[in-house]
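#struct-help
A.M.: can someone run this one for me? Single chain, 302 residues.
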Amino acid sequence: MSAHRGSIALEEAHVLAHTHFDGDQHVLRLHAPRIAARALAGTFVHLRCAEDLPMRRPMSIMRANAEQGWIEVLYKVTGVGSRALAHASPQQSLSVLGPIGRGFVPHTARPRVLAIGGGVGIPPMVCLVEQLLVRSDVGWKPLVLMGSELPFPFRARPSTILLPGMPPEAIGCMPLLEEWGVPSRLASRSGFPGCFDGVVTDLARAWLRSLERAQLEQIEIFACGPGVMMRACAALAREFALPCQVALEEFMACAVGGCAGCTVAVHTDSGVSMQRVCVDGPVFDAYQVFPSTFPPPRVAGD
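D.P.: on it. C-alpha coordinates below:
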Protein backbone atom coordinates (compact mmCIF):
# COMPACT_ATOMS: atom_id res chain seq x y z
CA MET A 1 0.00 0.00 0.00
CA SER A 2 2.93 2.36 0.67
CA ALA A 3 3.66 2.73 -3.06
CA HIS A 4 0.15 4.11 -3.52
CA ARG A 5 0.04 6.34 -0.43
CA GLY A 6 -1.17 9.80 -1.43
CA SER A 7 -2.01 8.74 -4.98
CA ILE A 8 -5.59 7.54 -4.40
CA ALA A 9 -8.35 10.13 -4.09
CA LEU A 10 -11.83 9.80 -2.58
CA GLU A 11 -14.34 11.96 -4.43
CA GLU A 12 -18.04 12.63 -4.48
CA ALA A 13 -18.39 12.42 -8.24
CA HIS A 14 -21.35 13.86 -10.12
CA VAL A 15 -22.87 11.91 -12.98
CA LEU A 16 -22.36 13.89 -16.19
CA ALA A 17 -23.76 11.36 -18.65
CA HIS A 18 -25.03 7.81 -18.65
CA THR A 19 -25.31 5.97 -21.95
CA HIS A 20 -27.06 2.62 -22.24
CA PHE A 21 -26.36 -0.15 -24.74
CA ASP A 22 -27.71 -3.58 -25.64
CA GLY A 23 -26.71 -6.47 -23.43
CA ASP A 24 -27.31 -4.40 -20.27
CA GLN A 25 -24.04 -2.54 -20.81
CA HIS A 26 -23.57 1.06 -19.77
CA VAL A 27 -21.02 3.88 -20.05
CA LEU A 28 -20.93 6.25 -17.10
CA ARG A 29 -19.19 9.63 -17.23
CA LEU A 30 -18.33 11.14 -13.84
CA HIS A 31 -16.93 14.50 -12.80
CA ALA A 32 -13.98 13.40 -10.66
CA PRO A 33 -11.13 15.86 -11.30
CA ARG A 34 -8.60 14.48 -8.82
CA ILE A 35 -8.99 10.96 -10.18
CA ALA A 36 -8.95 12.18 -13.79
CA ALA A 37 -5.66 13.99 -13.18
CA ARG A 38 -3.92 10.78 -12.03
CA ALA A 39 -5.58 8.06 -14.09
CA LEU A 40 -3.39 5.72 -16.11
CA ALA A 41 -4.43 3.05 -18.58
CA GLY A 42 -4.98 -0.17 -16.67
CA THR A 43 -5.91 1.48 -13.37
CA PHE A 44 -9.43 1.37 -11.97
CA VAL A 45 -11.86 3.01 -9.57
CA HIS A 46 -13.78 1.53 -6.66
CA LEU A 47 -17.29 2.89 -6.95
CA ARG A 48 -20.21 2.95 -4.54
CA CYS A 49 -23.24 2.07 -6.65
CA ALA A 50 -25.98 3.34 -4.31
CA GLU A 51 -26.41 4.93 -0.87
CA ASP A 52 -27.82 1.74 0.66
CA LEU A 53 -25.08 -0.52 -0.76
CA PRO A 54 -21.89 -0.11 1.28
CA MET A 55 -19.80 -2.55 -0.79
CA ARG A 56 -18.05 -0.83 -3.68
CA ARG A 57 -17.49 -2.28 -7.17
CA PRO A 58 -14.18 -2.13 -9.07
CA MET A 59 -14.42 -0.70 -12.60
CA SER A 60 -11.67 -0.09 -15.14
CA ILE A 61 -11.16 3.45 -16.36
CA MET A 62 -12.03 3.72 -20.05
CA ARG A 63 -11.30 7.42 -20.56
CA ALA A 64 -9.94 10.23 -18.41
CA ASN A 65 -9.86 13.92 -19.28
CA ALA A 66 -7.66 15.76 -16.80
CA GLU A 67 -8.37 19.16 -18.36
CA GLN A 68 -12.15 18.82 -18.05
CA GLY A 69 -12.00 16.68 -14.92
CA TRP A 70 -14.03 13.65 -15.95
CA ILE A 71 -13.60 9.91 -16.21
CA GLU A 72 -15.63 7.23 -17.98
CA VAL A 73 -16.25 3.62 -17.00
CA LEU A 74 -17.95 0.83 -18.92
CA TYR A 75 -19.83 -1.80 -16.95
CA LYS A 76 -22.26 -4.64 -17.47
CA VAL A 77 -25.13 -5.38 -15.10
CA THR A 78 -24.28 -8.61 -13.28
CA GLY A 79 -25.83 -8.20 -9.82
CA VAL A 80 -27.54 -5.98 -7.29
CA GLY A 81 -24.88 -3.27 -7.27
CA SER A 82 -24.50 -2.79 -11.00
CA ARG A 83 -28.29 -2.99 -11.38
CA ALA A 84 -28.68 -0.10 -8.96
CA LEU A 85 -25.93 1.83 -10.73
CA ALA A 86 -27.74 1.45 -14.06
CA HIS A 87 -30.45 3.76 -12.67
CA ALA A 88 -28.02 6.58 -11.80
CA SER A 89 -29.12 9.86 -13.36
CA PRO A 90 -27.28 13.06 -14.34
CA GLN A 91 -26.19 15.24 -11.39
CA GLN A 92 -26.53 12.34 -8.98
CA SER A 93 -23.53 12.02 -6.69
CA LEU A 94 -21.54 8.77 -6.33
CA SER A 95 -18.62 8.07 -4.02
CA VAL A 96 -15.56 7.05 -6.03
CA LEU A 97 -12.13 5.92 -4.86
CA GLY A 98 -9.23 5.94 -7.30
CA PRO A 99 -7.25 5.67 -9.41
CA ILE A 100 -6.08 2.35 -7.96
CA GLY A 101 -3.37 -0.03 -9.09
CA ARG A 102 -0.44 -0.14 -11.46
CA GLY A 103 -1.14 0.59 -15.11
CA PHE A 104 0.31 -0.51 -18.42
CA VAL A 105 3.90 0.47 -19.27
CA PRO A 106 4.43 0.70 -23.05
CA HIS A 107 8.05 0.42 -24.17
CA THR A 108 9.37 2.75 -26.86
CA ALA A 109 11.35 -0.12 -28.36
CA ARG A 110 8.00 -1.74 -29.22
CA PRO A 111 5.93 1.11 -30.72
CA ARG A 112 3.46 -1.17 -32.52
CA VAL A 113 0.98 -1.72 -29.70
CA LEU A 114 -1.44 -4.63 -30.12
CA ALA A 115 -4.25 -3.97 -27.65
CA ILE A 116 -6.69 -6.86 -27.12
CA GLY A 117 -9.90 -6.34 -25.13
CA GLY A 118 -12.66 -8.80 -24.37
CA GLY A 119 -16.10 -7.69 -23.15
CA VAL A 120 -15.75 -5.37 -20.16
CA GLY A 121 -11.98 -5.71 -20.69
CA ILE A 122 -12.29 -3.25 -23.58
CA PRO A 123 -12.03 -0.05 -21.45
CA PRO A 124 -8.32 -0.26 -20.54
CA MET A 125 -7.50 -0.67 -24.24
CA VAL A 126 -9.34 2.55 -25.13
CA CYS A 127 -7.62 4.35 -22.28
CA LEU A 128 -4.21 3.05 -23.35
CA VAL A 129 -4.67 4.25 -26.92
CA GLU A 130 -5.92 7.69 -25.90
CA GLN A 131 -2.91 8.20 -23.66
CA LEU A 132 -0.49 7.04 -26.35
CA LEU A 133 -1.93 9.53 -28.83
CA VAL A 134 -0.75 12.50 -26.77
CA ARG A 135 2.78 11.13 -26.30
CA SER A 136 5.55 12.39 -28.57
CA ASP A 137 8.43 10.18 -27.41
CA VAL A 138 8.00 7.75 -30.32
CA GLY A 139 5.68 7.19 -33.28
CA TRP A 140 3.20 4.87 -31.59
CA LYS A 141 1.14 2.67 -33.93
CA PRO A 142 -1.66 1.06 -31.92
CA LEU A 143 -4.08 -1.54 -33.23
CA VAL A 144 -7.10 -2.46 -31.09
CA LEU A 145 -8.83 -5.83 -31.43
CA MET A 146 -12.03 -6.40 -29.46
CA GLY A 147 -14.09 -9.50 -28.84
CA SER A 148 -17.57 -9.94 -27.42
CA GLU A 149 -20.39 -12.46 -27.50
CA LEU A 150 -22.82 -9.70 -26.50
CA PRO A 151 -23.57 -6.74 -28.77
CA PHE A 152 -20.64 -4.33 -28.53
CA PRO A 153 -21.13 -1.32 -26.23
CA PHE A 154 -20.98 1.08 -29.17
CA ARG A 155 -22.57 1.34 -32.61
CA ALA A 156 -20.07 -0.55 -34.76
CA ARG A 157 -19.54 0.52 -38.36
CA PRO A 158 -17.32 -0.52 -41.29
CA SER A 159 -13.77 0.79 -40.99
CA THR A 160 -12.21 3.04 -43.59
CA ILE A 161 -8.68 2.27 -42.34
CA LEU A 162 -7.00 -0.45 -44.40
CA LEU A 163 -5.18 -3.18 -42.48
CA PRO A 164 -3.02 -5.48 -44.62
CA GLY A 165 -3.06 -9.04 -43.34
CA MET A 166 -6.41 -8.73 -41.58
CA PRO A 167 -9.04 -11.36 -42.54
CA PRO A 168 -11.29 -9.72 -45.16
CA GLU A 169 -14.53 -10.35 -43.24
CA ALA A 170 -13.24 -8.33 -40.28
CA ILE A 171 -14.32 -4.83 -41.29
CA GLY A 172 -16.28 -3.64 -38.23
CA CYS A 173 -14.66 -1.04 -35.98
CA MET A 174 -15.23 1.12 -32.91
CA PRO A 175 -16.28 4.56 -34.22
CA LEU A 176 -14.46 6.47 -31.46
CA LEU A 177 -11.12 4.88 -32.35
CA GLU A 178 -11.80 5.42 -36.06
CA GLU A 179 -12.29 9.14 -35.35
CA TRP A 180 -8.90 9.18 -33.63
CA GLY A 181 -7.30 7.57 -36.68
CA VAL A 182 -6.61 4.34 -34.79
CA PRO A 183 -7.43 1.06 -36.54
CA SER A 184 -9.67 -1.40 -34.72
CA ARG A 185 -11.38 -4.66 -35.60
CA LEU A 186 -14.03 -6.82 -33.95
CA ALA A 187 -14.41 -10.54 -33.32
CA SER A 188 -17.44 -12.52 -32.16
CA ARG A 189 -18.98 -15.96 -32.39
CA SER A 190 -22.47 -14.43 -32.27
CA GLY A 191 -22.72 -13.67 -35.99
CA PHE A 192 -22.60 -9.87 -35.75
CA PRO A 193 -22.11 -8.15 -39.15
CA GLY A 194 -18.56 -7.08 -39.93
CA CYS A 195 -17.01 -9.25 -37.22
CA PHE A 196 -14.39 -11.97 -37.52
CA ASP A 197 -16.16 -15.26 -36.81
CA GLY A 198 -14.18 -16.57 -33.86
CA VAL A 199 -12.43 -15.51 -30.68
CA VAL A 200 -10.39 -12.33 -30.63
CA THR A 201 -7.07 -14.13 -30.08
CA ASP A 202 -7.61 -16.07 -33.30
CA LEU A 203 -8.15 -12.77 -35.10
CA ALA A 204 -4.89 -11.49 -33.58
CA ARG A 205 -3.09 -14.67 -34.62
CA ALA A 206 -4.28 -14.34 -38.22
CA TRP A 207 -2.90 -10.80 -38.39
CA LEU A 208 0.38 -11.61 -36.64
CA ARG A 209 1.04 -14.46 -39.10
CA SER A 210 0.96 -11.97 -41.96
CA LEU A 211 3.86 -9.94 -40.54
CA GLU A 212 7.58 -10.17 -41.21
CA ARG A 213 9.99 -10.88 -38.36
CA ALA A 214 11.20 -7.26 -38.34
CA GLN A 215 7.61 -6.09 -37.89
CA LEU A 216 6.96 -8.58 -35.09
CA GLU A 217 10.00 -7.27 -33.24
CA GLN A 218 8.22 -3.91 -32.91
CA ILE A 219 5.06 -5.36 -31.30
CA GLU A 220 4.05 -5.59 -27.66
CA ILE A 221 0.70 -7.06 -26.58
CA PHE A 222 -1.56 -5.47 -23.99
CA ALA A 223 -4.71 -7.29 -22.95
CA CYS A 224 -7.66 -7.30 -20.59
CA GLY A 225 -10.66 -9.62 -20.44
CA PRO A 226 -11.94 -12.88 -18.96
CA GLY A 227 -9.42 -15.31 -17.49
CA VAL A 228 -9.65 -17.75 -20.39
CA MET A 229 -8.89 -14.92 -22.81
CA MET A 230 -5.91 -13.79 -20.73
CA ARG A 231 -4.46 -17.29 -20.86
CA ALA A 232 -5.00 -17.35 -24.61
CA CYS A 233 -3.22 -14.00 -24.94
CA ALA A 234 -0.26 -15.33 -22.96
CA ALA A 235 -0.13 -18.38 -25.23
CA LEU A 236 -0.33 -16.12 -28.28
CA ALA A 237 2.55 -14.02 -26.98
CA ARG A 238 4.69 -17.14 -26.46
CA GLU A 239 3.83 -18.40 -29.93
CA PHE A 240 5.23 -15.25 -31.55
CA ALA A 241 7.88 -14.49 -28.87
CA LEU A 242 6.26 -11.17 -27.98
CA PRO A 243 6.20 -9.33 -24.65
CA CYS A 244 2.73 -9.17 -23.15
CA GLN A 245 1.11 -7.25 -20.30
CA VAL A 246 -2.28 -8.30 -18.94
CA ALA A 247 -4.74 -6.46 -16.69
CA LEU A 248 -6.38 -9.09 -14.48
CA GLU A 249 -9.98 -9.06 -13.31
CA GLU A 250 -10.57 -10.43 -9.80
CA PHE A 251 -13.27 -10.14 -7.15
CA MET A 252 -12.26 -7.43 -4.68
CA ALA A 253 -13.48 -6.40 -1.24
CA CYS A 254 -11.38 -3.43 -0.10
CA ALA A 255 -9.51 -2.87 -3.42
CA VAL A 256 -6.72 -0.98 -1.60
CA GLY A 257 -4.56 -3.89 -0.50
CA GLY A 258 -5.83 -4.36 3.04
CA CYS A 259 -7.85 -7.56 2.80
CA ALA A 260 -5.55 -9.52 0.44
CA GLY A 261 -8.60 -11.25 -0.99
CA CYS A 262 -7.56 -10.79 -4.62
CA THR A 263 -4.11 -12.38 -4.54
CA VAL A 264 -2.61 -14.28 -7.48
CA ALA A 265 0.55 -16.34 -7.81
CA VAL A 266 3.28 -14.37 -9.60
CA HIS A 267 6.31 -16.34 -10.81
CA THR A 268 9.53 -14.34 -10.53
CA ASP A 269 13.25 -15.12 -10.83
CA SER A 270 13.39 -15.50 -7.05
CA GLY A 271 10.36 -17.79 -6.80
CA VAL A 272 6.59 -17.58 -6.51
CA SER A 273 5.04 -14.70 -4.59
CA MET A 274 1.40 -14.00 -3.81
CA GLN A 275 0.56 -10.51 -5.00
CA ARG A 276 -2.60 -8.44 -4.73
CA VAL A 277 -4.34 -7.71 -8.01
CA CYS A 278 -5.71 -4.41 -6.70
CA VAL A 279 -2.47 -2.61 -5.79
CA ASP A 280 0.38 -4.84 -6.99
CA GLY A 281 -1.52 -5.07 -10.29
CA PRO A 282 -3.96 -5.18 -11.92
CA VAL A 283 -1.36 -5.13 -14.70
CA PHE A 284 1.17 -7.96 -14.67
CA ASP A 285 3.65 -9.51 -17.05
CA ALA A 286 1.68 -12.30 -18.75
CA TYR A 287 4.65 -14.67 -18.51
CA GLN A 288 4.70 -14.28 -14.72
CA VAL A 289 1.03 -14.96 -14.05
CA PHE A 290 0.61 -17.60 -16.77
CA PRO A 291 4.00 -19.36 -16.50
CA SER A 292 5.55 -21.69 -19.02
CA THR A 293 8.91 -23.29 -19.66
CA PHE A 294 9.45 -20.68 -22.37
CA PRO A 295 11.21 -17.53 -21.10
CA PRO A 296 9.67 -14.14 -21.90
CA PRO A 297 11.28 -12.00 -24.60
CA ARG A 298 13.35 -9.08 -23.36
CA VAL A 299 12.38 -5.52 -24.14
CA ALA A 300 15.13 -2.98 -24.74
CA GLY A 301 15.41 -0.64 -21.79
CA ASP A 302 14.08 -3.13 -19.23
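A.M.: thanks! The CA atoms of residues 42 and 296 lie 21 Å apart.
D.P.: also worth noting: The domain at 2-100 is CATH 2.40.30.10 (Elongation Factor Tu (Ef-tu); domain 3).
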